Amino acid sequence: MPEQAESKVTTGRILLVGGDPTMLKSFRDLLAGDGYEIAVSVSERAAVSLLYGSTFDLVIAGAQGGCEDLNFLRRVKRNHPETAVILVASDGSVASAVEAIRQGANDYLTKPLTYDQIRLAVGKALTRQESRSPMAVKASGNTGLCQILGQDLRMLKILEMAESVASSQATVLITGESGTGKSLVARAIHACSQRRNQAFVEVACGAIPDTLLESELFGHVRGAFTDAVSDKPGKFAVADGGTIFLDEISTASPQLQVKLLRVLQERQLEPVGSNETQQVDVRVILATNRDLNVEVEAGRFRQDLYYRVNVVTLELPPLRERTGDVVILAEHFLGKFASANGKEILGFSADALSAMRSYDWPGNIRELENCVERAVVLSRGAHVSVEDLPEAVLSSMARPQSSSDPTVVKPLREALKEPEKQIILAALQANGGCRKTAAKQLGIDRTTLYKKMKRYGLNGE
Prior knowledge:
Blueprint: E1 13-18, H1 21-33, E2 37-41, H2 44-53, E3 58-63, H3 67-79, E4 84-89, H4 94-102, E5 107-110, H5 115-130, H6 134-139, H7 153-166, E6 172-175, H8 182-191, E7 200-204, H9 210-218, E8 219-220, E9 232-233, H10 235-238, E10 243-247, H11 254-266, E11 268-269, E12 278-279, E13 283-288, H12 292-297, H13 303-309, E14 312-315, H14 323-340, E15 347-348, H15 350-358, H16 364-378, E16 383-384, H17 391-395, H18 412-415, H19 417-430, H20 435-442, H21 446-456
Parallel strand pairs: 1-2, 1-3, 3-4, 4-5, 6-13, 6-14, 7-10, 10-13, 15-16
Antiparallel strand pairs: 8-9, 11-12
Helix pairs in contact: 2-14, 7-8, 11-13, 14-15, 14-16, 14-19, 19-20, 20-21
């Protein structure tokens, strides 16, 4: 590199990852001299832990070429969308550069480099991140949106719709099984809306007795009932100017449903025991784990209220339909809980990953999070082993394949075809179609993997 030009004072946190020691030292000295705060990681694996434990504006990684670089890039952009990424290669090709940019890299540089080239690339990357989409900015904070992100196409479309509706005032209905992340999506919508600086109030309707829920939502005046010793504002009043999230809305009584309909239509309410009408300016987001169409047909949910809340509906898929995201989410939780417990855990063993992929996760993301937290606490090695997982998850490994006729015994090789196909498919999905990495995780060479893929009619990228 040429002599260092006159430095300029600037700010920002940059993580330098891998590459040769000379490059790391040169980049560190140059960028530190320009006023950036610099951290250095000798490997991508160690960098992942650093990213979970701190916030960086930019990652500069020494690219080695191949799928491993893209896997690291995807992992950073998936779990830390607010962080810019620059890859630096010794002999990068045009195809590699195009693919890296397509996967989310802000720039792809090849050596030798001048100081001016480095400064220009860093400046452009950080400037571009400042103007990134509101959804990415807000989701990276307290919204928890990263816990529901992944490669599943349905989830990506749902998040695109959530970003589109965030800036509107439309009522949003979020449906899905318990533990799929309905509360996280609601918080992300609020955080990306114009109401982001106002209150976000969450009410678990199913957890509050029906006799108290009306008072909880609309408030009450002194003397309205025996224990009403003073006036108390309701959740709608507290959320005035902001957003109220009504979870488990299907549990509301018919009487309460009538009052909710009025609030949604007119933004007016009366506290319990009062004839005084209050006007509220509230964005309403609702959630349910039940099919409201069925509830309407059964007479348990008002049809007019259903039409009023069903303006924009986001249906979150269960985790068992997002098998390719199980490992992504598990790795996120692993980094979170390893940091919280002061443990250095590099990842999961192959058996542990296989068990988690084959389990149905009836409790969805919430169950997976609890499972990983338990495994981190129990783990004594550098990797979470299959012995660290709950018994329910382990039972899925030994679960026999269903058969239309249990009296018919298939040859072992034939009976193992479908399980082997699903394991290979899951490995490919978890690694973005990268055969090299998938083969490594499966403990076989690439030639063997190609033959098995051809046998089962699987297409790799």
